Amino acid sequence: MDFRYTDDQLSIQAIARDFAQKRIAPVAAELDKSGEFPLDTIREMGQLGLMGIEVPHEYGGAGMDTIAYALAMIEIAAADCAHSTIMSVNNSLYCNGILKYGTEEQKQKYVRAIATGEAIGAYALTEPQSGSDASAMHTRATKNANGDWVINGKKSWITSGPVAKYIVLFAITTPGIGAKGVSAFIIDTTRPGFHAGKTEPKLGIRASATCEIEFTDYVCPKEDMLGPEGKGFAIAMGVLDAGRIGIASQAVGLSRAAYEASLAWARERKAFGSPIGSFQMIQAKIADMKCRLDAATLLVLRAAFAKTQADRDGGRFSTEASVAKLFASEAAMFITHQAVQIHGGMGYSKEMPLERYFRDAKITEIYEGTSEIQRLVIARNETGVR
């Protein structure tokens, strides 16, 4: 790994940091309270290139690499996890999947509007009865007389589902053969037969709209199948590898915000006549938080570097992505927990952002594959035993 950032990487990092602190941080608490989707700031992020960082210029993106994406994600997440969640899905799960597996026509039609922030993208894999066991999905797609696909079924926990214009969807096209019978599709939500359910009332990332979506005789044109028939599950898993780098970056940004707040509090807050940072128990917490934050940051950069190499030379980065996601998400839970403890009663109050950081951190251990699934992926990749 080369630890020197390029000028482009530093530029997008600076752009993201400036926007996050000036436009997102001042409204984050109110958006968390109201649960309102931040459409205006998301569109501004698109105009800055943040919604399609790895998308080539010819499709409306910034044309940068995964390291640039990770650096920008960290900055946005440090201001507000809800914004970074929307950004992650657009970049990692939606745009990345179509760029890697789509036709030229699909890239031109379905990537540009998302990368520029004109529209929102989503990714639909999970169903009410199938979360970690994604191959157990029930949503079906069958061919009609014209060769188009008629889709019926439900998906759940769809990030940006209430506002998405386009969705990458996974459905069974050949039942009875498990994962080999899954195919991927690009869904235009303005077509008849698509319905978005109520927005879920979540513990954290509340301004990131999440809902169940339903398909009733939805007709998807045959040219909107993504990749070959029967390869949908492989596409889903490959896209999730990239998504895990995004969530690991989110966890690092969140952890950094909680750590920096705790560091300032330890210097300023006094008890028994001294700054609490002079007490050994607080010092131990600060040291443990710092070690986990730095380790998570380096693991994220390693995973981003591995994906950049894979994009250029081929190969997989599954283990690096899972290691980064597992460690960074659990570090986020540890660091935000310690941050609340260091702040004492004020950490528990909504007058300060610590309790929001704590609530937001939990989801990083769940979506894009739970911590349990990450351990399974890592162990299988390492041992070769399945």
TrEMBL record:
Protein's name according to its UniProt entry: 3-sulfinopropanoyl-CoA desulfinase
Species this chain originates from: Dokdonella fugitiva
Gene3D superfamilies, per database record: Acyl-CoA dehydrogenase/oxidase, N-terminal domain, Butyryl-CoA Dehydrogenase, subunit A, domain 2, Butyryl-CoA Dehydrogenase, subunit A, domain 3
Location of the Acyl-CoA oxidase/dehydrogenase middle domain: 122-217
Swiss-Prot/TrEMBL keywords: FAD, Flavoprotein, Oxidoreductase
EC number(s) per entry: 1.3.8.11, 3.13.1.4
InterPro entries according to UniProt: Acyl-CoA_DH_CS, Acyl-CoA_Oxase/DH_mid-dom, Acyl-CoA_Oxase/DH_mid-dom_sf, AcylCo_DH-like_C, AcylCo_DH/oxidase_C, AcylCoA_DH/ox_N, AcylCoA_DH/ox_N_sf, AcylCoA_DH/oxidase_NM_dom_sf
Any matching Pfam family: Acyl-CoA_dh_N
Cofactor(s) required, per the database record: FAD
Record domain Acyl-CoA dehydrogenase/oxidase C-terminal: where: 230-381
Swiss-Prot/TrEMBL catalytic activity: 3-sulfinopropanoyl-CoA + H2O = propanoyl-CoA + sulfite + H(+)
Annotated ranges, domain Acyl-CoA dehydrogenase/oxidase N-terminal: 6-118
GO molecular function term, any single one: acyl-CoA dehydrogenase activity
Family membership noted in the UniProt record: Belongs to the acyl-CoA dehydrogenase family.
